[in-house]
Amino acid sequence: MSNDKLRAQLIAAATEIQKLAGQTTQRFVFAESCTSGLAAASVGSQPGISRFFCGSHVTYRDDSKFQWLDVKQHDLNTVGPVSSAVSKQMAEGALLRTPEAQLAVSITGHLGPDAPEGLDGVIFLGVAVRLADRTAVVSHRKVLPTASRGDRQQLATLELLATLRRVLQLVRATEAVCLESESYAVIGDAQIETLLSGSFNPVHIGHFQMAEYVRKVLSKKVHFEISVENVDKSELDQAECLERALAICLMYDIVLTRAKTFRQKARIFGKSCFVVGADTIGRIAESKYYLDSKDRDQAFRELLELEVCFLVFGRTMDDSFSTSSADQLHYTRLEDMDLPESLLQLCTSVDEDLFRQDVSSRDLR
Fold first, then answer.
1. Per-residue pLDDT tens for 10-54?
2. Phi and psi angles of residue 259, each rounded to the nearest 5 degrees, phi first
3. Structural domains present in the chain
């Protein structure tokens, strides 16, 4: 890729960030290591960006990370400066030292040459978001393609700006859906094929493995879907919604909705496949969620007409569909469940030999 093309991409990314920052009124700060201030220079080239851009902590050496951002010396010595732990601490440190900022994005990486084994081109991006009474912090690992050091520095900067752009999009989406100015919002690809629906409180390895199974085995792209409203739980406020989605959005596209039921979700997305656990499909069949048996049957007919399907993963759960290890649990497949035939015809089961993961969000809370 030519330097001219990379420079043009940096300008385009900075222009979009200014637009998104204006829409969300979010002030942000950077903590840069391997990009050495290039992200700040790119964003700072935009006229009027000072309304939102607070600055950048360029902490190129370990001692600067320790002295300026309070990155733990122990982590710098053990896991090393190019790590998830350090990228998180850099972002959180920058945010804590910039009271007027609502979010911070950090980057640390090895651009080469002579990088340690296994770390050539590896970067870690950290994000810290200030919530009402806490700070949400996440990180994401990426590997840059083989290129010159100068090109890699620009590519790393593009990744940093893309991460900021994604978080600003998420802030805008959560505000729109939680404050009911929009019934749903998409962060990422507008074309939706498959939705992994859940409360993700918290998201865990089982969710990500389910998404990867669908991507690799079925060759379909997965959107995680979080509903602000739920038939069994209290409504999410913007901070809760943002925190849950932040843990997902750096890796996967997300849909935020106000759709309490799968009937409502299907009316929004039409022909689509919902990825669910056996516990969820069991609750879909329960009559308490419908006006009466006729309403339940009509709901299943409507899903069929909309060409909706369910990909059902087995779950370790009890007879009331609880997945907490505090209960008497047994592994349950779709084939083990007594479900209405009209619902079963919408469902496809995932074989236990191909996928099984017993982790539960309830046990992680």
1. 999 999 999 999 999 999 999 999 999 999 999 999 999 999 999
2. -85, 115
3. 3-178 (3.90.950.20), 184-364 (3.40.50.620)
